[in-house]
Amino acid sequence: MEAVIMHFRQGRHHQNPHQMILKVANSAQEAKTVIGKTATWTSPAGKTISGKISALHGRNGNVRAIFADAGLPGQSLGQKINIQ
User: Fold this and answer.
1) Which candidate, 71, 52, 55, places its Cα nearest to that of 63?
2) Distance between alpha carbon 79 and the CA centroid of its chain, in Å?
3) What's the CATH code of the domain at 62?
4) Are 32 and 19 in contact (CB under 8 A)?
């Protein structure tokens, strides 16, 4: 399954590069099925960064993904990410 990286999860004064918002589906019911799965992004240089999908984000099919070791770079915004 594929998803699109929408944005960093951010607050008023900072953004967290270890937490990303992913667009998975068009409804929250469809997005619930991917919670707990692994999301893997491959950089243009071939490096892979993996994270875990933790929770829903809103009601429109978005989810939160947490990348523990290394956060995603800004060039990943708008690109596709694989979900297993």
Assistant:
1) 55
2) 10
3) 2.40.10.190
4) no
Distance, first Cα to last Cα, the chain: 7
Where do we find the tokens 């523990």?
68
Number of domains in the chain: 1
| pTM of the entire predicted model | 0.89
Q: How far apart are CA 56 and CA 38, in angstroms?
A: 14
What string of pLDDT tens digits covers the 84 residues of the chain? 999 999 999 999 998 989 999 999 999 999 999 999 999 999 999 999 999 999 999 999 999 999 988 899 999 999 999 999
Residue numbers of the domain that contains 61: 2-83
Longest distance between any two alpha carbons in the chain, whole Å: 35
User: Minimal CA–CA distance to 34: which of 9, 64, 73, 67?
Assistant: 64
* 36-59 confidence digits (pLDDT tens): 999 999 999 999 999 999 999 999
